[in-house]
C-alpha cells in the first residue's frame, strides 16, 4: 500500500489506479485499497465510479472511520445535498465530534434551506451569537 500512496502523493494517479485495480482483483474486500481507488477515480474525473467504490468500501465489515465523510464530500461536489447529508449523519453516528462531517453537514443543511438545524447541529454551548 505504501507504493500506491507514494504514487498518489507524486500525482501519478493513473499509475496508482492500475495498481489498486490489480490489488482489488486479487482481494476485492480490501477496504483501504477500495477507498483509495474511489478517491483516485474521483480525482481523475470519474466521479460515478469513484463514488461507487467509496460506497462499496463503506459496506465492508472492516470499514474504516471517515469513509462516510469521504462519500459525503464527493456527493457535495455533485450537489447531491440530501445524499451528502445522509452520509455525514452516518459518519457522526460513530464519531459525533468528527469536525469535517459536522462542518459539511451544517453547510449541506444550509444549502437545502435548513439553516436553523445547521446552526443547532454545530452550536457551541455557552457561545453567544448575534443576529
Looking at the overall shape, the CATH architecture of the largest domain is Alpha Horseshoe
* Global outline: elongated
Question: How many discrete structural domains?
Answer: 2
Strand content: under 5%
Radius of gyration: 17 Å
Largest sheet: none
Give helix and strand order, one letter per element, not per position: HHHHHHHH
Distance between the termini: 50 Å
Structure notes:
With 131 residues, the protein is mostly helical. It has two domains: 1-64, Tetratricopeptide repeat domain (Serine Threonine Protein Phosphatase 5, Tetratricopeptide repeat, Alpha Horseshoe); 71-131, Tetratricopeptide repeat domain (Serine Threonine Protein Phosphatase 5, Tetratricopeptide repeat, Alpha Horseshoe). Helices cover 72% and strands 0% of the residues. The protein contains eight helices and no strands. It has helices spanning 2-9, 13-26, 31-43, 47-59, 67-77, 81-94, 99-111, 115-122. Helix 6 (81-94) runs antiparallel to helix 7 (99-111). The longest helix is centred in the first third of the chain and has 14 residues, at 13-26. The chain is elongated, with a radius of gyration of 17 Å. The model is unreliable at 124-131 (pLDDT under 50).
Amino acid at each position: 500500500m505504501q507504493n500506491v500512496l507514494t504514487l498518489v502523493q507524486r500525482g501519478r494517479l493513473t499509475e496508482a489506479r492500475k495498481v489498486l485495480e490489480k490489488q482489488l482483483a486479487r482481494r476485492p474486500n480490501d477496504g483501504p485499497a477500495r477507498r483509495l481507488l474511489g478517491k483516485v477515480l474521483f480525482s481523475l474525473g470519474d466521479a460515478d465510479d469513484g463514488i461507487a467504490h467509496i460506497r462499496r468500501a463503506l459496506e465492508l465489515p472492516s470499514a474504516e472511520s471517515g469513509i462516510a465523510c469521504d462519500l459525503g464530500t464527493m456527493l457535495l461536489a455533485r450537489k447531491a445535498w440530501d445524499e451528502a447529508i445522509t452520509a455525514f449523519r452516518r459518519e457522526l453516528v460513530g464519531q459525533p465530534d468528527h469536525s469535517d462531517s459536522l462542518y459539511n453537514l451544517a453547510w449541506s443543511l444550509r444549502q437545502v434551506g435548513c439553516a436553523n438545524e445547521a446552526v443547532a447541529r454545530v452550536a457551541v454551548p455557552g457561545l453567544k451569537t448575534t443576529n
